[in-house]
Amino acid sequence: MSSEPGAAAGARIRALRTERGLSLSALAAAAGIGKGSLSELESGRRNPTLDTLYAVAGPLGVPLALLVDFREGSVVADEGFETVLLHTERTATTTSEVWLLRVDAGVTRSSPAHQAGVVEQLVVLAGSCRVEYADQVVDLGAGDHASWPADRPHRYTAGEHADLRAVNVIMTPT
User: Per the count of CB atoms within 10 A, which of 59, 77, 119, 167 is most buried?
Assistant: First the structure.
């Protein structure tokens, strides 16, 4: 769920979908979510989950931060996972998002592929995690860093003994 009203995120999704000439059915299919769920989200009757926001951001070709209106301090959470938008930097060629993550011990955060050319980075502040992307597996502890192409599915799992605290930077070509 998001800290902002679901209606605002839903209105942005509807506007982006319309701009791109996508039907409700086409976006729902591309995002892998139900047409009814997308309709409820767009109309403000349903608050978006992080999974849903990621699912629609990819097919819309936009960074997640756009769906929360680039508002620093925006919180998006699912069970066992919370992320806070710390900063967004937009240039003529790239949108960079900086998120603070909290992932409960043992929880896995799976992300669908972002648009082509997106690169994601994770810096572990506390705890540990395993990052999996393409055919790579990287184990990280406090102070470690990983970077990977995020235009394919990827995931990270917090270590079993402590919550993960990390900074996640997502760089999206514009």
Answer: 59
Superfamily of domain 79-173, CATH level 4: Jelly Rolls (2.60.120.10)
Task: State the fold for domain 6-67.
Answer: 434 Repressor (Amino-terminal Domain) (1.10.260)
Contact 8, 69 (CB under 8 A): yes
* Per-residue burial over 16-32, b = 16 or more CB atoms within 10 Å of its CB, e = otherwise: bbeeeebeeeebbeebe
- pLDDT above 70 coverage of the chain, percent: 97
Query: Token digits for 32?
Result: 């892998």
Q: What is the pLDDT of residues 58-96, one digit of tens each?
A: 889 888 888 877 788 888 888 899 989 999 999 999 999
Range with the lowest mean pLDDT among 4-13, 64-73, 117-126, 128-137? Answer: 4-13
Beta bridge partners of 77: 82
**DSSP string of 126-140?**
ESEEEEEETTEEEEE
The mean pLDDT value of the chain amounts to: 90
Within 10 Å of residue 155's Cβ, how many Cβ atoms? 13
Domain spans of the chain, in order of start: 6-67, 79-173
Query: Closest by alpha carbon to 173, among 113, 86, 115, 120?
Result: 115
DSSP 3-state percent helix, strand, coil across the chain (nearest 5): 25, 40, 35
